[in-house]
UniProtKB/TrEMBL annotation:
Regions annotated as coiled coil: none
EC number(s) reported in the record: 1.3.1.12
NCBIfam families noted in UniProt: PRK06545.1-6
Protein name per the record: Prephenate dehydrogenase
EC category: oxidoreductase
InterPro entries found in the cross-reference section: 6-PGluconate_DH-like_C_sf (IPR008927), NAD(P)-bd_dom_sf (IPR036291), PDH_C (IPR046825), PDH_N (IPR046826), Preph/Arog_dehydrog (IPR050812), Prephen_DH (IPR003099)
Residues covered by the Prephenate/arogenate dehydrogenase domain: 1-311
GO MF term list: NAD+ binding; prephenate dehydrogenase (NAD+) activity; prephenate dehydrogenase (NADP+) activity
UniProt-listed GO biological process terms: tyrosine biosynthetic process
One protein family per Pfam: PDH_C
Amino acid sequence: MCVLGLGLIGGSLLRDLTAAGIPAFGWNRSPETVTAASDEGYDVSGDLPATLARAEREDALVVLGVPVPALPDMLAAVARHAPSCGITDVTSVKGEVLRLVGRYGLSGRFVGGHPMAGTADSGWDATTEGLFRDAVWVVTTDGAAGEDATGYTAGESTGESAGGPAPADVEPWLRVWRRVIDMAVAVGAAVIPARARKHDKAVARVSHLTHVLAEALAVTADQGGALSLSLAASSFRDATRVAGTEPGLVRAMCENNRDALVTALDETIELLNGARRDLADPDHDISGLVEAGHDARLRYEARAGRSGSGQANRPFILLRPGTPGWLDQLHYAESIGAQIGLLEV
């Protein structure tokens, strides 16, 4: 594995891969990060062409661990120095990344990834072993047979079935797809498949919107002055935790998922406006919002294993990639948020 970018996610991945005994090396632009990681015994370089040339020689899976704005330079370098390597990424948007990958002619060996893990901190100093244990790792499926970069299948546009075996020219992509899944499983993550379009709509609601609301809550509290900040306790702390994320990273994730985020934000604003109207009228109450929110939270806790046994309650589906009917299974897994595992063909 070759990890490009050793911030929180990329650096933690390098730690976990190394701890699992998987040959892994990395690159980072910052000399300070290279020195710090090397001093801890990790195989890290600040020479991007040399790192990618090594990846090409060793048939490494290249993991793009840099923010979206840095991807064009990374993709150009990969296309030049590692022309046959499989590629994945760890960014929180998938549609924009898929478009960039296509621009550089790399779609046939790219599989998008998004580990749903992290903290508000960033950089090598924030990295840790075990960050991905029991976390969801989204692995995209846009390169599967009959699919294009928009996330639609041929069956959706023509009415034809997408359940047949994968044609031979999809096999190189399937090999990369299997490697990405194996990597995620090796660091303890639960793999959930999704097309880029579906992924971006989902994370707009559960991740990117959360960042926007956290920023707004933090600003509102701060405008209340010193007393408000002194009285802030655990509910404020938890609700605004991600406002501590480096602003450039927040902008990159939100601004590269504008359409889906605006839709989610509009729905939230409508709920807030309804709450405001009810609070402003002494004859009304906010029981509807409070009860609906409480029920929604319980559904999340049940699925995520935050209650009862502590075990996640996601469905689990075993797939044999490339066999008849596997795409139908894959899309069904996406539709119910199922974790997947792979069987040998």
